[in-house]
Amino acid sequence: MRKAWKLLKVIHTFCIGHGIHNWLMTDCIPEMNLVPNLLDNVQMIINKLRYRQHELEHEFLRSNEMINNDLLSTINKAGELLDADAASPYINFETLDE
User: Fold this and answer.
1) Are 48 and 41 in contact (CB under 8 A)?
2) Mean pLDDT of the chain
3) Dihedral sign from CA coordinates of 70, 74, 75, 80
């Protein structure tokens, strides 16, 4: 493309987005103290997690199922307590004001 622009005598202008990206990646980020190491660590984590996606999905679904089962058992216990209270013939009028 650059050769075609030269032959046509067209002034080449870079894309602003690519220019900013190149400036950040080549000039700014390597000069910062902690950022290059942080980016390397993030890339390492992403690479490891990418190959374990099915394990993560399975664990997520399993934990959601456990949470739902715990919630349903709590609701069932509350329902049993309410049924027991409704079936009780004894009403304590002293505790009604509380």
Assistant:
1) no
2) 80
3) positive
* Band (98; pLDDT cuts 50, 70, 90): low
Task: Provide the residue ranges of all domains of the chain, joining segments of one domain with +.
Answer: 3-86
**pTM passes above 0.70:** no
Q: Could you give the C-alpha distances from 51 to 42, 43, 45, 60, 88, in angstroms and in order?
A: 15, 13, 10, 16, 58
Cα 81 to the center of its chain, rounded Å? 38
- CB burial of 36-74 (b: ≥16 within 10 Å; e: otherwise) equals eeeeeeeeeeeeeeeeeeeeeeeeeeeeeeeeeeeeeee
Measured between alpha carbons, how far is 75 from 23 in angstroms, rounded to an integer? 58
